[in-house]
Amino acid sequence: MKARIGIMSEALIRMRLLAIAKGEYTPQPDEPKIWYTSINAISQILRPENIDLLRLIDSERPDSLTQLAELTGRAKSNLSSTLKTLGEKGFVRMEQGKGKSLKPVALFTDFEIVTNSELEHYLLQLELDKAA
After folding, report:
1. At 37, phi and psi to the nearest 5?
2. How far is the C-alpha of 106 from the C-alpha of 42, rounded, in Å?
């Protein structure tokens, strides 16, 4: 389960989204689905301990947050906060477990970070063509 993560400026990410919405650009199948504006932004989320947590969730498949807390030795409140952040970024999902418990599911365990100068050039050219 590898996530392709792209790095581009915020302005270019917006241009890409608008071009897709207008039908001016169709994303390629191998193009990243997750975009960040810098390596620094990615590193705040994909810290080694968070990657280890995702891999532990994938290998151990805990049935609840309580079971994950036992596996990691971390407090449930701390884990809940981390999982919420990872979930907001699309790296983990919480599913209904047994009873009222929530079961964490890692969506990705490996990561490939790419910069795409061809895509950047294409988006900038779209803007130049519109301005002309």
Report:
1. -90, -10
2. 17
